[in-house]
Amino acid sequence: MLTERQNEILKLIVMSYIKLAHPVSSNLICDKLKCSSATVRNEMMALEELGYLEKTHTSSGRIPSEKGYRYYVDHLMEVKELNGEDYQKLQIIFDNQQLELSDVITKSLQIVSDMTSYTTVILDEKSHENKLKEISVVPINESEMVVLIVTDKGYVEHKDLRLTGVSLDEVKNTVKLINDLVVGTPIDEVSSKLEFDIKPIIGKYVKQHEMIYNAFYNVFEDMSRKGNNINIVGKNNVFKHKEFNDIDKVQDIFEKFDDDEKMLSIKEDTQNNDISIYIGKENKLDDDVTVIKTNYKTDKDNGTIAIIGPKRMEYSRVVNLLDYIKKQIER
Amino acid sequence: MLTERQNEILKLIVMSYIKLAHPVSSNLICDKLKCSSATVRNEMMALEELGYLEKTHTSSGRIPSEKGYRYYVDHLMEVKELNGEDYQKLQIIFDNQQLELSDVITKSLQIVSDMTSYTTVILDEKSHENKLKEISVVPINESEMVVLIVTDKGYVEHKDLRLTGVSLDEVKNTVKLINDLVVGTPIDEVSSKLEFDIKPIIGKYVKQHEMIYNAFYNVFEDMSRKGNNINIVGKNNVFKHKEFNDIDKVQDIFEKFDDDEKMLSIKEDTQNNDISIYIGKENKLDDDVTVIKTNYKTDKDNGTIAIIGPKRMEYSRVVNLLDYIKKQIER
DNA sequence: AATAGCACTCTTTTTATCTGATTGCTAATA
DNA sequence: TATTAGCAATCAGATAAAAAGAGTGCTATT
């Protein structure tokens, strides 16, 4: 257990380092505390021994270790109200009744990205709870048509189909058959339902059934596979932080941004609905960053929004922002 | 006018620099030419005086100037066949009959990006020649519905509509009205046609006409504005070239990639249908890169594909690749 | 327990030196 | 006259040494 003064010093060091990105010296701290630099040094030594602080070299000031950030976040950070300016800028988006939900999410995170200089991520998963609402077909010319699929949550998917030597009527018959039998099925179950319910009987109603059946089967297979959406906003903000002042580091993180598997790992591991913070090695993305995320759930879809920045992050501000956005989009 | 030997030397220098990314010395050249390094030096001096070569410092070897690259491209470059490996890798995509055209384009450029380590761009403009084919509406719940718009070229757009206090029948009446009167109209003319043909008479058929009219008007306005699509593949390849070994340069080009106006400027300025090459200052994107582009035109849509790389680019290979892709997608 | 003082450590910056690549020029050669 | 050999001059880049500055850790003192 840390003493009151150690808490105070650790807090000051974390806050100073977040702000100035420079190892913190005993002198800087003793100005704000009514004691001498030597005393602060003694305490710093203790904090380092306990693993909350680190040095960049023998005679440098101290920087927080990951354990230090974690302790700060868990015990020292003051969670205040969302600051006024941040609030106002976001409110412009939330007040706009015109926007669709997905636009609201994207735009609000765009704004957060701009305001904070961090990178934001939206991970949403469309497919899971969507049920097939309606399929329709629009012919384009003799051999081509567009298949439109709408789910009960308003999610739309479309696909070009090229079928030679098949009459439009036959396709329409198939669509009618599917609409009659499969509407209401969760979309990732449609293709298997197609296989067991439609395939055996389609021959009765449709002549060129094999070709048409295959085409639709593929459309639904594609669709259920397409579920995951990754939207990364403000990648270029990476350049603004001195921990990425090295071209190899930048390349590394950019390649991770493009690695879907890595990015999807952000979704994992949250049981609760709160805001979670993963500092450095605590996240699977990159040891040099902190990921702060939360899940959201609306009647249309659910997903995860996350903010990625250096470990030296404005924790309290980001938590406030995420919390506010989550509440607004769930409203 | 350059002498035969000067042509030969310039060509060797450009080719060597493209390959090795290192200023070319007189020695390197005289190995391949039956004359001494002193002779080569004299010629190099002449070529520099004429503006085809540059030095990085007083006693460095020579590198091609932009004028040098331009001369190489116009007069010295041998345009051979597409190389076998490049051909084969692309052919896998073009042979895949399953893929939609837009996927073929994206995937083939993805492959080019991977093979060459350059960045590729697809700029396509959907709206211009598309004519409205069919509008339909799928209700989601009492107040929400999805509007689906399909054009004669198979381009699909959809939008959520929230209308409170309006019956579905009235919306369907409106859609019927629009379908009857506006189908066949180019999509960027639809909203004005709506204003002059539909607005005056809609009141007769639909009660809540104002609200519904406005909703549809907005949908079409949005749609015609959405025409331009920018798809950049292989941004991270920038890291692979030594001209971008500087973090500021990388940041600069990444910010340009995100600047739609800058990227759209790539489309401009081509009258003909050939392949165009813009070296350094010749392009509006960035003085440090070369942009090689061509327009394509299919029955579905038309657009521009481009390859962006350092000025020290494998010109002949890239031209071959672009040419081949263009021909394949226009087939 | 807290502090003042000071030697010590290590980074950063500056300056100097050396090495190697390559040129431009001059004089000799074919 | 065109080509070449030879050589001093130039400059980037690597390596080393020196100086300056920031901040610590320890010891002795309050």
Structure report:
Two copies of one chain form a homodimer. Chain A is an alpha+beta fold. Helices cover 48% and strands 20% of the residues of chain A. In chain A, strands 7-3-10-9-8 form a five-stranded antiparallel beta sheet. A three-stranded antiparallel beta sheet of chain A has the order 4-5-6, with helices on one face. In chain A, strands 1-2 form a two-stranded antiparallel sheet. In chain A, strand 1 and strand 2 (62-64) form a beta hairpin. The first copy, chain A, is elongated and about 90 Å long. The model of chain A has no long low-confidence stretch (mean pLDDT 92). Chain A binds chain B through residues 98, 100, 133-134, 136, 138, 140, 144, 146, 148, 150, 152-154, 156, 158-160, 218, 235-236, 239, 245-247, 250-251, 254-255, 258, and chain B through 98, 100, 133-134, 136, 138, 140, 144, 146, 148, 150, 152-154, 156, 158-160, 218, 235-236, 239, 245-247, 250-251, 254-255, 258. Chain A binds a DNA duplex (30 and 30 nucleotides) through helix 3.
